[in-house]
User: Which sequence fits this backbone?
């Protein structure tokens, strides 16, 4: 029974007109080359090469085999090389999933910039607050806010965004909030993430000391950062949100950063999650590098 790579060995021997030279090209011992050629001839029941101490010569059937196989083997080799080179070039598509607010507001400019810079890379972007199954939906990368649940995947930390207390100036003016007394939070309407604890553990930014647990009354809860941010802008209460998601609103005074010396929510870690580090295409390497650079500059 002959093997496909027997054809490659025989073809190279014919091209080089030498077992020794063929072995150098193929990177295998000349004794192995000679044995494989003999075994191939025996399996076919056909003599392909005439050997003597000085040279090799083709039989008629050997010449016919070389004529039929050499071009096809070279074409196959070119196709494989082209496939490898294609994967090394920044072309093709990247399928991405990301949370709605993070994707539509923070990352939307990045997606546009990346597409301008690499016009041959197609971005296929799905925004959802559900944890899509990366393998089942064939996503190349998921951008997620930690902590991560998919321990079987690779999680590359892109950045950590500090969480800050924010409220509108009108709410601050009309409520009983005391900006000098963190305990007054318990008397205010709180805008919280779903499943967030009913008590806040306040941390001083200047020390590692944890302060008293402060009970909060939730006026509104949501899984969406945008909904909580809009509720705060509309004077409905105080929210503790990632700085990355309220940076513009703070700069335009739509929201005020209150209690700047403390934090009541842990920092939000943002990750790029993907199935494996192996065989990353050039486009994926570029995407991850450009994404990390962009998000760390935000």
Assistant:
């Amino acid at each position: 029974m002959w093997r496909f790579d027997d054809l490659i060995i025989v073809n190279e021997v014919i091209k080089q007109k030498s077992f020794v030279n063929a072995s150098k090209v193929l990177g295998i011992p000349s004794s192995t080359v000679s044995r494989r050629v003999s075994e191939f001839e025996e399996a076919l029941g056909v003599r392909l090469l005439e050997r003597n101490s000085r040279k090799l010569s083709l039989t008629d059937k050997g010449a016919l085999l070389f004529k039929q196989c050499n071009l096809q083997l070279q074409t196959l080799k070119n196709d494989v090389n082209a496939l490898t080179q294609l994967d090394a070039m920044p072309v093709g598509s990247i399928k991405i999933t990301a949370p709605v607010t993070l994707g539509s507001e923070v990352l939307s400019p990045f997606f546009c910039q990346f597409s301008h810079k690499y016009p041959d890379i197609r971005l296929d972007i799905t925004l959802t607050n559900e944890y899509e199954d990366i393998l089942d939906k064939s996503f190349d990368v998921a951008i997620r806010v930690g902590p991560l649940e998919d321990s079987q995947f690779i999680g590359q930390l892109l950045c950590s965004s500090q969480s800050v207390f924010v409220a509108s100036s009108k709410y601050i003016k009309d409520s009983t909030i005391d900006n000098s007394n963190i305990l007054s939070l318990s008397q205010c309407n709180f805008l919280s993430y779903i499943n967030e604890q009913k008590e806040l553990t306040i941390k001083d930014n200047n020390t590692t000391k944890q302060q008293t647990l402060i009970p909060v009354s939730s006026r509104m809860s949501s899984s969406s950062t945008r909904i909580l941010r809009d509720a705060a802008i509309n004077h409905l209460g105080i929210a503790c949100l990632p700085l990355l998601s309220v940076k513009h609103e703070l700069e335009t005074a739509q929201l005020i950063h209150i209690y700047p010396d403390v934090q009541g929510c842990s920092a939000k870690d943002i990750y790029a999650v993907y199935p494996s580090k192996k065989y990353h295409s050039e486009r994926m390497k570029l995407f991850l590098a450009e994404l990390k650079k962009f998000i760390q500059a935000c």
Q: What stands out?
A: The first helix runs from residue 4 to 16. The chain has a mean pLDDT of 83. DSSP finds ten helices and 15 strands in the chain.
